[in-house]
Amino acid sequence: MAKKENKTKPTAVAPADFLAAVEDEKKRADGQWLMDTMQEITGEPPKMWGPSIIGFGTYHYVYESGREGDTMITGFSPRKAAHSIYLISGVEREADLLARLGKYKTGKSCLYIKRLSDVDTEVLKKLIKASVEKVKNKDIKY
């Protein structure tokens, strides 16, 4: 059986150029804050992962099934409906922080925030940092 490759991979597109093309001014400003904050937390430069995700660092994973690949340590995408913030360690693991965050929705490893003004950005920083630390320590729940 052929090895299945991830569709989302780093590209050569400049994240600043991608972000500058976001039409909504508030979403663009929120995206800049997220990019600066994630770079500060990870110590990694931003890279485009696929056509619409700005990611930071690289994490190699191996599932119990044997499937493996590389993904970002954290990242985000300024989508029309909401910012998708990728907390690779698993969003629900941080229930205490989520309780203080503000207005959001979640997926397994994704936090959806319509605008940063809807949340406590200091709590958001703590969420991102907690996830990054868990990923770097390989403390991930699939």
UniProtKB/TrEMBL annotation:
Source organism superkingdom: Bacteria
Domain YdhG-like: 27-132
Stored InterPro entries: YdhG-like
Protein name listed in UniProt: YdhG-like domain-containing protein
